[in-house]
Specification:
44% of the residues lie in helices and 13% in strands. It is α/β, with parallel strands linked by helices. The strands form two sheets. The chain has a seven-stranded mixed β-sheet, with helices on both faces. The chain has a four-stranded antiparallel β-sheet with strand order 8-9-11-10. Helix 7 crosses helix 12, helix 14 packs parallel to helix 16 and helix 15 crosses helix 16.
């Protein structure tokens, strides 16, 4: 029989005693960010360590918390890629603000529930204010705009498509609905459509032009063709900052077409929407105000810990139409003056993800974020300039949203050889540990991709990395 008093005496006191002993480790982890530049970017666990860790099972009786913590440090936290490292130039990873870290820790400690406004009113106000603030950069009307913070761009995009489907399609017309996206759209868009039951023939993937942007003529031609065949075009997804190249689709033209044919216009700005904060570069996204919804991941370019993604909409009623349910067990904790979090998205109980972004913006001010965005564009330009000084390097996609693609292309090698060659270059530099870079594929070419959005990356980091890539390339070429 469970003895509550015995549990209180032995378990709770012991748990807090052990947790207090772990405070030192917490401070060490925070301090480690100060010296991250000197740390190796990635020390993967050895085969033996993986085998050792796999042997750890789920205990029937509890174990010493400090021992568990030491295992986590040995096998998990010290054997992972430091994606916030200033020379981690892969994927879309940024530095983490200490204010985001503080906000995240406080949120975890106090554990407010973001589902109901009543349960944590001022935290709810924070989420409302942060959504309004972000939506203002997209030109959404103050009086109607709204949004919700979700786990990431994938769930935000899924939720946006749900709102668009309900807004534009009668439930009986769903089998005839058609969505349009480019071949550079993020895989999460296709995944969301698949999860929602749309067939492959209901998803039109349009080839991009030579600048890797959506071709608006192909878009309109496809819509006209599908309408003639009795289909119902209902959704177009444009991208503000593609993962591959940082490209921004022609949002204004796409918005006009969406309006002309009554399509829901969603912009995947998970990565690139942060460029809207820059007074210099926000004009690159002219026309975004024509969109119905926007995905914006603050954990990508705004220095937030995972996860901190916002789904923003021009009209908050579209979210309510998609997600509101009123079960009897929530009646007493439903707000009448403010919209509950669970009425704006698919999640019920959820963490308050906006608090850490609020903490960051309050502590740093918007000016620092503006400077960060401008700095990222500047750093990508440095990469381009350094490559142009060296022989055999070819720029495949010009800098955009802090991202650039290039390859080493000496004469005399076939496409297959060049592809293998450039993959080998990245493998060598990653093995060295100084920087971490991966390839992607553009027009069948393996390209070296560098994403320069880390606030702590310096010009010296960039030049040294290009020097190292050039040295590795020459050494490999000599072996051919």
């Amino acid at each position: 029989m469970f003895d509550r008093f015995e549990f209180d005496k032995k378990s709770i006191d012991e748990q807090y005693r052990q947790l207090n002993s772990l405070q030192k480790r917490l401070y060490e982890a925070i301090d480690s960010h100060k010296t991250i530049r000197e740390k190796p970017i990635f020390i993967p666990p050895s085969k033996e360590e993986i085998e050792e860790f796999e042997k750890i099972g789920i205990p029937f009786e509890g174990r010493d918390a400090v021992e568990v913590e030491e295992e986590l440090m040995k096998y998990v936290f010290t054997k992972q890629a430091l994606v916030q490292h200033p020379r981690f130039f892969s994927f879309v990873a940024s530095a983490v603000s200490p204010y985001s870290l503080a906000g995240s820790i406080l949120t975890d400690i106090y554990n407010p529930n973001a589902g109901s406004f009543i349960l944590s009113p001022c935290a709810g106000i924070i989420e409302e204010k942060m959504c309004k603030w972000l939506a203002s950069y997209a030109g959404y009307p103050e009086e109607t705009s709204g949004g919700v913070f979700l786990s990431g761009g994938s769930i935000s995009t899924l939720s946006a498509i749900i709102a668009g489907r309900i807004n534009k399609l009668d439930e009986f017309d769903i089998p005839k609905g058609v969505a349009y996206l480019s071949d550079q759209a993020h895989s999460s868009v296709r995944k969301a459509l698949k999860m929602l039951g749309f067939r492959k023939d209901q998803v039109v993937i349009l080839p991009t032009n030579q600048d890797f942007k959506m071709d608006v003529k192909l878009l309109e031609d496809a819509i006209i063709k599908d309408k003639k065949e009795g289909k119902i075009p209902f959704l177009v997804v444009a991208t503000l900052g593609t993962t591959n190249t940082g490209t921004i689709d022609p949002l204004s033209d796409i918005g006009d077409i969406a309006s002309k044919y009554n399509l829901w216009f969603h912009v995947d700005g998970a990565f690139g929407a942060s460029s809207l904060i820059s007074p210099i570069y926000r004009n690159l996204s002219k026309g975004i105000e024509k969109s119905d919804s926007l995905t914006w991941d603050a954990h990508k370019w705004l220095m937030q810990t995972y996860s901190c993604s916002a789904l923003l909409v021009k009209n908050k009623q579209t979210l309510l139409d998609a997600f509101v349910e009123h079960p009897e067990y929530l009646e007493d904790v439903s707000s009448t003056d403010h919209i509950n979090g669970w009425d704006k998205g698919p999640e019920m109980s959820r963490p308050h993800r906006a608090i850490k972004l609020w903490f960051t913006v309050q502590a740093t001010g918007v000016k620092l974020l503006e400077d960060l965005i401008d700095y990222s564009f500047y750093n990508a330009k440095i990469v381009e300039q350094e490559l142009e000084k060296r022989d055999n390097w070819e720029i495949i996609s010009k800098p955009s949203c802090g991202t650039i693609n290039f390859r080493y292309a000496p004469k005399g090698l076939s496409l297959e050889q060049l592809n293998e060659f450039n993959v080998d270059i990245t493998k060598k530099i990653n093995e060295d540990g100084y920087a971490y870079i991966v390839t992607t594929t553009l027009n069948e070419m393996k390209t070296i991709r560098m994403c320069m959005i880390n606030a702590n990356s310096t010009e010296e980091d960039i030049i040294n990395t290009i020097d190292m890539l050039d040295k590795i390339a020459k050494e490999l070429l000599a072996q051919y």
